[in-house]
Amino acid sequence: MNSKLLPAVPLDDVAVDAVDLIRAFRDAGAVSFQDQPLDQSRAAYEAGCAANGVPFKALERVEDLYCEVNGGSIRLRHYRPGGNDSETARAVVVYLHGGGWVIGSVETHDRLCRYLAAVSGLDVVSVDYRLAPEYPFPTPLEDCIAALTFVSVRAGEYGWDPHRIIVAGDSAGGNLAAVLASDPGCTVSGSTIIGQLLFYPVANLLHESDSYARITDGFPLTAGSMRWFRSLYLADPQFARDLRVSPGLRQPAELAEHGAPPAFVVTVGLDPLADEGVEYAGLLARAGAPVEHHHLPRHSHGLFTAAGKIPTGARLLNRAANWLVELTD
Predict the structure, then answer these.
(1) pTM for this one?
(2) What is the CATH number of the domain that holds 282?
(3) Is 1 a domain residue?
(4) Which run of H or of E encompasses 43?
(5) Which residue intervals define the domain Alpha/beta hydrolase fold-3 in the entry (predicted)?
(6) Above pLDDT 90, what percent of the chain?
(7) Active site residue 209
(8) Per-residue pLDDT tens over the stretch 32-47
(9) Which of 105, 171, 182, 191 is flagged as catalytic?
(10) Which of 177, 225, 226, 276 has the fewest CB atoms in 10 Å of its CB?
(11) What domain range includes position 97?
């Protein structure tokens, strides 16, 4: 922990079911993502997700598929739960993992996606989009559009309904999901996004909200972490003005004209992204989207990839899965 920064949020302000993880993080030196070499940061994130994630769920089918993209192919992991033998085409969740567009993979979010599939009964397709700094903006977003196209074009083969797609993601993945749901340029012909599941999304890389000043140290994701991720994702800082980077810059009328699908949004108070996430939920509501917004003031970023250790995360993940069921019934 860098003592030159503002003091960390005291542990007394952290939720009871999350405080042990934050205490252990601080006792180990409070090394945030930007405080170590990139390869170590990626490995540490994978290890943390594996150690703290929800219990492993066995499913009827889990398979890796490959989707063509500009310059090669990317991996998609398809999760199919059992118990749905209907010949009716099924709704499908396209999940975009978090990690600041820099770390994370289908492996880090494997348990989370299995859990969503098992509890909701829906197919989930997790996207292993290419990462910055090797592949900065717009490549990760373009990979997600390619994955959405794959789901639409191959829907008949896998029993999906291309007009019942839900985009979902946490953190940077929540940003990508929000962009897919809001940007007319990301529309894939022959498909319809009917919902968006956004866990503590990045909504605005142009303006730092007040929560950046509140969360400067003492947590895995800090204001410094976000500035590091931003610098690696955006080759040109001016890209932060692009609505495909900062969907929170849109006006309600723009979103309404495009058609803002129903949203399930979770924000956490001990997070540099807290304020922009709350603002984005409000923006969607003003655009006419039905929004179910949960704000947890005493929890921190990464709640769902640590839901195996934080009961509140598991309960809210169950609620998210039930929202998917309600949306698609």
Answers:
(1) 0.96
(2) 3.40.50.1820
(3) no
(4) helix 38-52
(5) 93-304
(6) 95
(7) no
(8) 999 999 999 999 999 9
(9) 171
(10) 225
(11) 11-328
